[in-house]
Amino acid sequence: MTIGEAEPDADLGGGRPLEAGLHFIATPIGAARDITLRALDILRTADVLAAEDTRTLRHLMEIHGIPLGSRPLVAYHDHNGGVARPRLLRALAEGRSVAYASEAGTPLVADPGFQLARAAIAEGHRVLAAPGPSAVLAALTVSGLPTDRFLFAGFPPATASARRKFLAELAAVPATLVFYESPRRVSRTLEDMALELGNREAAVCRELTKRFEEVSRGPVPDLAEAFRDRSVKGEIVIVVDRAPPVKAGAEELEVALSEALETMSVKEAAAAVAGRLGLARRDVYQAALRLTEER
Asked: 119-136: per-residue pLDDT in tens?
């Protein structure tokens, strides 16, 4: 097989049975036609089907004309893993093929499946992935921000203090940052991002691949202002550019640390200021210690 040539897929054509093991399937994040042909083949031929939301998977299969037949369809999510996981592991131990789909997107990426994958691996079963839709990658693609290095940070904490600490710890990461957020908190999160991450370029991606898809781009403070009094619905992904390579002088550093130390510990203030000013966290931490000793 030459480079760039696709490897023949054992699941396509010929009526071959699906390989025994745990198959994680990426499902559409909006448009039902985004599912891959391989994922459809797995759904059609797996011995056992499992899903975060069985109603969503049933509907997807109906759209694509895939009958469930007499096959079991097992609900598996964060709240019933202790009960459902042994059942799926027994099926694997019997040499059966098990297909698992999250409600939308790629399993394990802010979706259930991690403990199931670990347990299957620990018992020596094959774990395979049918790649496909991912809100993280879709948002990166349309954001217009650097994609050579990125960090998926998941959902920021719900409380303001925890969220600001969380963002401060990410401020100095030399990579584009990707977050999921609830539409109810997107305004407050953008305001905290403006405080902790500064005047960086960002994109707020809403309802990706769906009818009302919207991408708002601009500096974080401008986006915070734009969403301040706005009621939004749907799935939200926020993409923020990496820390700018800006070096601050001693006077600017002292002012920034003094302000940060009014509400943060030395460690938290050093992390926040280092990220905001583009300085090494160790140097800023030492400066913060000196400043507190002088007070």
From this structure: 999 999 999 999 999 999
- Determine, yes or no, domain membership for 8: no
Beta bridge partners of 203: 217, 239
Q: Which two tokens stand for residue 6?
A: 């696709």
Continuous H helices in the chain = 37-45, 54-63, 81-93, 114-122, 135-143, 160-170, 186-196, 220-227, 250-261, 266-277, 281-294
Contact 272, 238 (CB under 8 A): no
Domain span at residue 229 reads 136-240
Write down the pTM of the prediction: 0.78
In this structure, what token pair is assigned to residue 143? 């954001």
* Spans of the chain below 50 pLDDT: 1-4, 10-14
